[in-house]
Design a protein that fits this description.
Elements (H helix, E strand, L loop, with lengths): L1 E5 L4 H12 L5 E6 L12 E5 L8 H7 L4 E4 L8 H15 L9 E6 L21 H19 L6 E7 L2 E3 L4 H8 L4 E3 H14 L5 E3 H15 L1
Parallel strand pairs: 1-2, 1-4, 2-3, 4-5, 5-6, 6-9, 7-8
Helix pairs in contact: 1-6, 3-4, 6-7
Length: about 230
């Protein structure tokens, strides 16, 4: 299967890339990048497409996107940028929605965060937030909009999954995760990567995965591997 990946040069995105390269069901990875990722394009599984503007794809790029089966979206900010965090993923999703009627279901996996703030319901006021208020609100709005995009998709052609990790620790910090932070507040990067890659490949009935649920899913995958 063919998976699109954005944000592959970041801390989490690079782990997702590794998981995809090692996954036996993923035969092709289309990396969307704003800059040349070096020798990554030399890997036989990888095709790199340089995107100058993530709010406007050219026709050849859209045609390439429509041949994919899934996407993992890791491109985003922590401090909150509406263009990057909302417009970029929605532009991508709208491009996927131009696939012909009757196309196989496309699985879209969005990296978000544990402490995002959802938009207030009608008639409610915004809550006061003590820290990172702008980033939390914008990323919460992004979650809502990408989930709505799946609801608006005709004939169920788009499945959206939102993954909300806490503090993402290196692989060798599993002991620190368990005894200092606990499973509710942190996750190791390989657990996060394994879950996101699996959602892209197999999907799931659950649409939103919080930190503990991501860990549980990753450990279930590890048990299957023996």
């Amino acid at each position: 299967m063919k998976v699109v990946l954005s944000g592959s040069t970041g801390y989490i995105g690079s782990e997702i890339l590794t998981q995809c390269l090692n996954h036996p069901s993923i035969t092709s990875i289309l990396v969307l990048s704003r800059r040349d990722p070096g020798n990554l394009a030399d890997h036989p599984k990888v095709k790199v497409t340089i995107v100058d503007d993530f709010t406007s794809y050219n026709e050849p790029t859209v045609d390439e996107l429509k041949t994919a089966d899934a996407a993992i979206w890791c491109l985003g900010t922590y401090n909150g940028n509406e263009k990057v965090d909302i417009e970029f993923p929605l532009t991508f999703i709208n491009a996927i929605k131009t696939r012909p009627p009757g196309s196989a279901q496309f699985r879209y996996v969005q990296l978000s965060g544990a402490f995002t703030e959802p938009p207030p319901k009608e008639g409610e006021k915004e809550r006061f937030l003590w820290y990172f208020s702008n980033g939390r609100r914008i990323r919460g709005a992004a979650e809502a909009k990408v989930l709505e995009a799946a609801d608006d998709s005709s004939q169920g052609g788009l499945a959206v999954y939102v993954v909300k990790p806490g503090a993402v620790l290196p692989r060798d910090r599993a002991t620190l995760q368990k005894y200092v932070f606990g499973d509710s507040l942190s996750i190791t990067i390989d657990e996060l990567g394994a879950t996101m890659a699996d959602l892209a490949v197999h999907g799931n009935e659950q649409k939103v995965f919080r930190n503990q649920e991501v860990i549980k899913h990753a450990r279930m995958l590890q048990e299957k591997l023996g």
